[in-house]
Amino acid sequence: MIHVYLDDYRACPKGFVPARTVDECLLLLRECEVDVLSLDYDLGWGQPNGLELVRAMASAGLFPQRIYLHTSSDAGRQQMFQLLYANKPEHVQLTNGPMPPELLMEIFETVKE
């Protein structure tokens, strides 16, 4: 099981697999079992954004166990959250904000072992 961090700019936290584009993230969701998925909205000028990823996830039924939204775009976060909330399976945990420091530390600790 892996953890995925979608962001074109920010450094990827330890213990996560970086996805810099929507296509990279979709590939990981298709090919791997994903526990935590943390999403950004803005992914670079002219590039598909986080909402386009969420649409593709909903259309294909590709969902991790837990989803966090670390984007600094308030409008993007709300759009992604609403679409995810309306389409996610019941067992998927969705948080309308970034990962808490405790979770980041927990995942980091598993990498050190």
Overview of the structural elements:
With 113 residues, the protein is of the alpha/beta class. It has one domain. The chain has helices at residues 22-31, 50-60, 74-87, 101-112, and strands at residues 2-6, 17-19, 34-39, 66-69, 93-95. The protein has a 5-stranded parallel β-sheet, with helices on one face. Helix 1 runs parallel beside helix 2 and helix 2 (50-60) runs parallel beside helix 3 (74-87). The longest helix has 14 residues, at 74-87. The two termini are 16 Å apart. The model has no long low-confidence stretch (mean pLDDT 97). Residues 2-85 form the Cyclic-phosphate processing Receiver domain. This is Cyclic-phosphate processing Receiver domain-containing protein.
Report on the biggest sheet. Answer: 5 strands, parallel
Into which percent range does the helicity of residues fall? 40-55%
How far apart are the first and last residues' alpha carbons, in Å?
16 Å
Mean pLDDT rating: 97
> How many structurally independent domains?
1
Backbone CA Rg: 13 Å
Order of helices and strands: EEHEHEHEH
Number of helices: 4
Instruction: Determine the structural class based on helices, strands and strand pairing.
Output: alpha/beta
**Total number of β-strand segments?**
5
Low-confidence stretches: none
The 3D shape can be described as: globular
| Main β-sheet, spatial strand arrangement | 2-1-3-4-5
Q: Into which percentage range does the β-strand content fall?
A: 15-25%
Organism: Paenibacillus tianmuensis
Pfam families: cREC_REC (PF20274)
InterPro entries: cREC_REC (IPR046909)
Protein name: Cyclic-phosphate processing Receiver domain-containing protein
